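Structure ticket #2291
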Amino acid sequence: MRKLLILNCTFAKAGIERLNKLFTNLIEKYNIDFEIYHLTDKIENLDEFSHLIISGSALLVSQDNEYDNKLFDIIRQFANKRILGICYGHQILAKVLMQENICRKSNTPELGWRMVTLTKNQLFKGISNPVFYESHLEEVFDLNDDFEIIALNANCEIQGYQYKNLPIWGVQFHPEVTYEYGMQSLKNKLANNKHLENIFYNELDDPKYIEQNFRIFENFIKL
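Resolution: structure written out below.
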């Protein structure tokens, strides 16, 4: 039986609720049972789940934090299942799999809508010349040969990876973000953090191109 666990790693109350709603509206379209838990929640039924999505977060993977051990344990319990890490999830997943800190402050952080080059991979089936929402100050680096790099752009050499040809993926970008959600997030971030204007990019010519990004979840769930 397929069942998806979505681990919400955001912390601002409004952000938690917004992300829960975003994922609910997205995943309801697909034929899979799912539950959303927050990182601080106690999860007693991990054995019931076949798929795991780890969301983005304001937490910095380059720094140890109180939730690391919990995440390490959850990821290890999904080692023979299916995992998709997004942004922070992508970074913490790589840290667990490498068993060392392979995340650092980026010299070219990204905020906004960015073009990403994808390699041929089952996770990206049906997607071409995509533009994704990006919001990250850190990046993964120096992955070993157990990882296949499957996405990149000029600012970030590891925008995506697959681990050991297993159904375990990380993506630095945010495939879950709709145009409306992304624009509101950008408005909030730029209004409260003027310095972020220096890393803001908009390479999105037409909002309709965002729709194809959601195929990542359809592809992930089918596996």
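Closing remark: Residues 3-222 form a domain with the Rossmann fold fold (CATH 3.40.50.880).
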